[in-house]
Design brief:
Order of helices and strands: HHHHHHHEEHEHHH
InterPro entries: Cation_efflux, Cation_efflux_CTD, Cation_efflux_CTD_sf, Cation_efflux_TM, Cation_efflux_TMD_sf, CDF_Transporter
Number of helices: 11
Protein name: Cation diffusion facilitator family transporter
CATH class of the largest domain: Mainly Alpha
Keywords: Membrane, Transmembrane, Transmembrane helix, Transport
Strand order of the largest sheet: 1-2-3
Structural class: mainly alpha
Pfam families: Cation_efflux (PF01545), ZT_dimer (PF16916)
Strand content: 5-15%
CATH superfamily of the largest domain: Cation efflux protein transmembrane domain
GO cellular component, one term: plasma membrane
CATH architecture of the largest domain: Up-down Bundle
Amino acid sequence: MEKEKSKWIVVAFLVSFVLLFVKFYSYSLTNSTAILTDALESIVNVVAAGFASYSIYLSSRPKDDNHPYGHGKIEFFSAGVEGTLIILAGIFIIFQAINNFFDPRELDQLPIGIALIGISGLINGMLGFVLQKKGVELKSLTIEASGKHLMTDAITSLVLILGVAIIYFTSLYYLDSVISILFSLYIIYSGYALVRRSVGGLMDEADPSSVEAIVGLLNNTRKPNWIDIHNLRVQQYGSDRHIDLHLTLPYYLDLNQVHDEVQGVEKVLEEDWPGMMEVFIHADPCIPENCCHYCQLTACPVRKAPITVKIEWTVANMSKNQKHYHDSV
């Protein structure tokens, strides 16, 4: 998996490096600030792809004494750096565009510039689509972020072509600065989205989609002995995942039986995840006077009350640090 991640990041780096020269050549032909906007974003693409390549390498390293949870969080940091670079590029372009607005320049060879930007945008769009798909498949935020960035670049290139075409046919050269500012605002917003997601990952912000997937999996594989699961927490480290949960079991089980039930939950979770999965389970004994009415173990030899309800496991009640009987009494 790590080799495939590295392969796609290298492809992104090489393509971005080539397109960087294509876009700056287009700017040198046209003197268009709008095209310069696209070219400067390509610098961000190259720097980000280089940093992403290093983050993929680092995240693949095994755990060590200083990093007991591995190195996967570097991918969140990588996405944050990429987002920050995008924001800085957008701010720089706005200042450049404002300056050119008050001193508009005549633009040259716009048809050639439009063609070059169009080809670049098409290549970025196709590569970005593939990288987003691979990022989700390989559970890599770095690859997914690179793909989204390239898709954003492709969309801005398409709109840029339309804007430059309007300038070409109307000779309203001040529109070059207006288009640049609009593009910059969009670029800054996309950079903010990457930084926001990066900070969320570094702060171990809950990922609702991950928790929902795990809750659904546990519901589908639920065993009668698994009386209750609560205090469920999920942390993502690159393509690796760490899960903590509390499992309530019949109090009369011996240590070997408890171990087997814990392993059963671990196996369900580990087999469903393609990357590295680490599961920590704390086993709790049931409390008959509180648990019997929702315990689904029909052959329980020490039952003190009939089954009156089956509590559905949801994200809300499995995430709480308390047994489910609090929700049902």
